[in-house]
Structures are given as C-alpha cells and as structure tokens.
C-alpha cells in the first residue's frame, strides 16, 4: 500500500485554527501523512496575534531537506511565508527537489488584521513563487494585491485569473469568502476553462483558518492523485462542512471544524 504524503511549509498558529496546525489536521482527516516545515511561530488566538517570530532561512531549508531526502513528498502547500528571504529559500528548495504539485496559498493578513507577509514580499511573490505554482489560491484581497487593482465584478476576477496565469502559475482559484454574495463562489481557471465552485454562505463569526484548511485539503487531494478539478471539488466540500460545523471556541473568531467532513458526512 502506498501512503500519500503531504508537506506544509507555513507558520504555526498557537491557537490551532490556522497555519501548520490546520494543515496537519486537514491532512490527517483526508488520510494523508502530514509533514511540516515551519517558517515562523505566531502567538495567536481567536482574537489577535500578539507575536511573530520568524525562523532563520537555514532552519526553513533544513526542515524541507530533511523530509524530502528521507520520507518523500507527494504534494506541497505553502501558507504564511513572512519575508522575502524565507520566500527565496522556499523557491530554491522547490526547484532543487523538483517539488510538485505545489499549492501556494498567498497568505498576507490574518482575519484579526496581523501582517503575515511583509509588504516587499507581497510584490516579490509574483516573480519568486507564483511561477512555480501548480495552483495558487488567493482570497479576493490577495488577488487584488497581486494584480494591483480592485476586483468588484466577476469579469474583473476572470481577467485577474488570466493575468495570474501570465505570471507563470499553472492554475488559480480566486476564493469568494470575502464577497457580499449569497453563495461562497470560488473562481477556478487553468488556462483552458473557467469553473465556479459554489456552496451556501454560512453566517458565522467562526471562520478562523478557512483559507489554510482549504489549501491543505487541495494539497492532500493532489497527494492522493486526484485530478486538479476533483481536488478542488473535495476541498470545497471539506471546507464547507468545516464551516457549517465551526467551533465556538475562544472569545473571537473560532476555528473551522476539521473533523466535520468525516463525522457529519450525511448532513
Ligand atoms: N462564510 C462562509 N460560508 C461558506 N464558505 C465560506 C465562508 N467563508 C469562506 N468560505 C469558503 O472558504 C474557502 C476559503 O476562502 P476565504 O475565507 O476567502 O479564504 P481566506 O481564509 O484565505 O481569506 C473558500 O472556499 C470560500 O468560498
Ligand atoms: C500562522 C498563520 N498562518 C496563516 C493564517 C491565516 O489563515 P487563514 O486561513 O487565512 O485564516 P484567517 O487568519 O484569515 O482566519 C494565520 N492566521 N496564521
């Protein structure tokens, strides 16, 4: 039996709802062996981020080398990257080890408002990491930063998706968590066709870690050999279930429920 293996290169969320913790929980629920390379440690809960402690470039690089050279990796995702120097190490390691498929979640700001990627790195992303992406998963705000304009209409989002592929990514999904629409509609483009993936929008404050969980589910599904289209379908079902059963934990935005996809599959 082959065991699918996925690596997350991301930051730690001490509150357990986002970052490495959300990724590993998601990998586990989807039957994938999870590994991690930490980029930064955040002191974080459901209300706020009170500290960010970046790891050295050497520490990031060595974690990636260690798991790739021994265990092997069937899919990789990146989350919080923090700075340009860490981004450059990740890009070097992706090239050196030919890491693929690569899901890039271009995390910039937490829901509580903390900067998880510094300003210069937000621009560097376009040259450094996007050209290596099998799939990049910006939310609306991140897509606007990448193309440097506001994206109010679906036509503007389609044009932005094309522009992101022109930057070198193989496919993009612009997530619809932050729109006013009645449904949560994600726009997928792979250079050939546009697809939308829709689900009911849940009016809950407990959405901490939605983007991390979604991109981790994508990486896990790709690690299992699912096609890109099927992986997006699986990830959308996983995150929708996790939001519909989200957890009222802490005093702020509680986390999504990583066990809901398996435990409440009949709802
Ligand atoms: N309130 C919601 N109800 C249903 N789906 C949601 C809701 N908020 C986000 N989603 C979905 O969760 C996934 C992550 O999207 P989003 O929240 O935009 O990412 P991020 O955490 O990066 O801001 C997407 O599939 C999006 O459509
Ligand atoms: C350590 C860490 N990484 C990423 C995030 C952002 O996660 P996201 O899924 O976008 O969720 P919110 O922060 O928007 O709730 C994070 N908070 N911490």
Automatic annotation (TrEMBL):
Domain Pyridoxamine kinase/Phosphomethylpyrimidine kinase: 13-257
PANTHER family, sorted: HYDROXYMETHYLPYRIMIDINE_PHOSPHOMETHYLPYRIMIDINE KINASE THI20-RELATED (PTHR20858:SF17), PHOSPHOMETHYLPYRIMIDINE KINASE (PTHR20858)
Lineage top rank: taxon: Bacteria
Reactions the enzyme catalyzes: 4-amino-5-hydroxymethyl-2-methylpyrimidine + ATP = 4-amino-2-methyl-5-(phosphooxymethyl)pyrimidine + ADP + H(+); 4-amino-2-methyl-5-(phosphooxymethyl)pyrimidine + ATP = 4-amino-2-methyl-5-(diphosphooxymethyl)pyrimidine + ADP
Entry-linked InterPro entries: HMP/HMP-P_kinase_dom (IPR004399), PM/HMP-P_kinase-1 (IPR013749), Ribokinase-like (IPR029056)
Organism: Kroppenstedtia pulmonis
Entry's EC annotation: 2.7.1.49, 2.7.4.7
Keywords from the UniProt entry: ATP-binding, Kinase, Nucleotide-binding, Thiamine biosynthesis, Transferase
Lineage: Bacteria, Bacillati, Bacillota, Bacilli, Bacillales
Annotated GO CC locations: cytosol
The keyword Nucleotide-binding is assigned to this record: yes
An MF annotation (GO) of this entry: hydroxymethylpyrimidine kinase activity
Name of this protein: Hydroxymethylpyrimidine/phosphomethylpyrimidine kinase
Pathway: Cofactor biosynthesis; thiamine diphosphate biosynthesis; 4-amino-2-methyl-5-diphosphomethylpyrimidine from 5-amino-1-(5-phospho-D-ribosyl)imidazole: step 3/3; Cofactor biosynthesis; thiamine diphosphate biosynthesis; 4-amino-2-methyl-5-diphosphomethylpyrimidine from 5-amino-1-(5-phospho-D-ribosyl)imidazole: step 2/3
Keyword Nucleotide-binding: yes
SUPFAM superfamilies: Ribokinase-like (SSF53613)
Pfam families per UniProt: Phos_pyr_kin (PF08543)
GO biological process, one term: thiamine biosynthetic process
Family: Belongs to the ThiD family.
Coiled-coil ranges per UniProt: none
């Amino acid at each position: 039996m082959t065991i699918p293996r996925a690596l997350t290169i991301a930051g730690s969320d001490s509150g357990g709802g986002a970052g490495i913790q959300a990724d590993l929980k998601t990998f586990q629920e989807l039957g994938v062996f999870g590994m991690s390379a930490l980029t930064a440690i955040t002191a974080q809960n459901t209300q706020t981020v009170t500290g960010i402690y970046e790891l050295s470039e050497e520490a990031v690089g060595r974690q990636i080398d260690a798991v790739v050279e021994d265990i092997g990796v069937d899919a990789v995702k990146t989350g919080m990257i923090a700075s340009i120097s860490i981004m450059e190490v990740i890009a070097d390691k992706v090239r050196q080890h030919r890491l693929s498929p690569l899901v890039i979640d271009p995390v910039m700001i937490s829901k509580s408002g903390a900067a998880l990627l510094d300003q210069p790195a937000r621009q560097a992303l376009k040259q450094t990491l996007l050209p290596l992406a099998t799939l990049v998963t910006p939310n609306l705000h991140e897509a606007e930063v990448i193309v440097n304009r506001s994206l109010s209409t679906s036509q503007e989002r389609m044009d932005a998706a094309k522009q992101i592929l022109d930057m070198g990514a193989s496919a993009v999904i612009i997530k619809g968590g932050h729109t006013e629409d009645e449904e949560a509609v994600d726009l997928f483009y792979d250079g050939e066709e546009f697809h939308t993936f829709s689900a009911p929008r849940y009016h809950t404050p407990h959405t901490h870690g939605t983007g991390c969980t979604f991109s981790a589910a994508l990486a896990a599904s790709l690690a299992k050999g699912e096609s890109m289209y099927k992986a997006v379908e699986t990830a959308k079902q996983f995150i929708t279930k996790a939001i519909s059963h989200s957890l009222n934990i802490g005093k702020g935005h509680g986390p999504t429920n990583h066990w809901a996809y398996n435990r409440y599959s009949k709802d």
